[in-house]
Amino acid sequence: MRPSNFSTKLLWLLLGGLVLVSAGLYNGYPLVTPDTGTYVQSALSFNVPDDRPVTYGLFILYTSLFKKTLWFVIFAQSVLLAWLMLRYVEEFVPRFTSAFWRVALLALTAWATGISWYSSQLMPDIFTSIGLLALGLVLLGRSRSKPETGFLLFVVLASEMMHNSNLLIYTMVVLGFGIVAGVKKLFKQQIVRRVTWLIVTTVVLSGWVVLPALHKSLGGDFAVSRSSHAFLMARLVESGVMDKFLKDNCGPANSYSLCPYRDNLPNDAIAFLWDGNSPMNKAGGWDVVRDEYKLIIQDILTSPSYYPYLISDGIQSTLRQLTHIGHGDGLQVSREGTTPYDRIRDFAPFELKKYMNSLQNRGQLNFATLNERTYGTHLWALVALGLVLATPLRKRISLDLLIVVVVLGLGIVSNAFVTGALANVLDRLQGRVSWLLPFVALLVVAEHGPAVLQYLHHLATSAQREPTDVA
């Protein structure tokens, strides 16, 4: 690549990164949630948190250029996301030969979906989408070179280890895609190379070992998380399954710490985990109750009598999570006395005034208009994809683009199941990936818009020509 061409592409990439970091610029500082403080603390101390990976803390440390500024963190993740989005436009909208139109499509996606409000957060949530996009490119063999393939696989592995849920989400995606590819004979027809799928699957499954090994090397346990028992128990409490279990099992033969609270359990998982008066915290916290909770969870998962309740709740929670795509969840004011404030004061004290003067910490963020637009965008995206996939237009769409719809669709549904059925139904947890639906719809419309308009014109003309009954 000639230097001038490289410089031009770099400038457009940086412009795309600025588009995706625009929410942070508008806010006046990178956005934070109550969980941000834990990630920044792990960057300060290298300690492995009990309830989340250390990986994003290391990302914060290195991309901030060792505590120079937290702005670099959100810009780095936004540039990475911009690069992946532009690669998708290059691969699946070849009629857009101009860098201007590619960045314009990126900007349209950001405006329509509000994705910048995730990529501008000091949170690992955006990496769920980043890893899914990288997965799609590798599975379809759309990387330009072996070094790019290696980089994409590294992005998949790193993204997988940024958040505990990503391990299960990516595993479900690659295994689900393998089933689809086998049924549709994509392997047999060499549309998708089996060896490529095996390599990607190996990388994804290796995350289950690499992450515990990383934790062990930094002084933690050889485990993905030391608190998975607490989160699963909280989910069972919220679902109502724990009420039935305690009703069936509390008695002279069993003395579970939850038995005295069986008629007064919290209504939701968040209260069970974080409220100081919850049964778990009154018992001494998740370290104290670990063995007991693991035993209870094992009893429930090995007792078929609870399966109807678990399945019903899993389906309901997944469907509910699919609709929770609003913005603003967790972006509350975090001033003095909060964990984000304390950790940012320790990490970048010279940025504390900017942090305090941000719109978020002045309580001046309003997401009503954005959420209305986001919901509308998702509805139109469903209509557009339905029009293409359920009509003869499907024959005009390249098979690779249809496979992209499958891969990203699996990611969206898997995310809804893992977060909704196994953790919490929250806007933040689904909004981090739901924007991929409008993005892939825009790819389809951008490449096949003329064919879509021609088909709609044909339908309208045919309807006008139909004879009408005359009484």
Please give a quick description of this structure.
This is Glycosyltransferase RgtA/B/C/D-like domain-containing protein. This protein has 471 residues and is mostly helical. The protein is built from 23 helices and no strands.
Essential attributes:
single chain, 2 domains, Glycosyltransferase RgtA/B/C/D-like domain-containing protein, 0% strand, transmembrane, globular, mainly alpha, 67% helix, 23 helices, 471 residues
List the helices and strands and how they pair.
Elements: H1 3-20, H2 22-27, H3 36-45, H4 55-63, H5 71-92, H6 99-113, H7 116-119, H8 126-139, H9 146-160, H10 164-183, H11 194-217, H12 228-239, H13 241-249, H14 269-274, H15 279-282, H16 290-301, H17 307-323, H18 339-347, H19 352-356, H20 368-389, H21 399-422, H22 427-434, H23 436-465
Q: What would you note in describing this structure?
A:
The model has no long low-confidence stretch (mean pLDDT 93). Helix 8 packs antiparallel against helix 9, helix 10 packs across helix 21 and helix 17 packs across helix 21. This protein has 23 helices and no strands. Helices cover 67% and strands 0% of the residues. It starts with a helix and ends in a 6-residue tail after the last helix. The radius of gyration is 24 Å and the shape is globular. The protein has 2 domains: 354 residues, no CATH class; 96 residues, no CATH class. The protein has 471 residues and is mainly α.
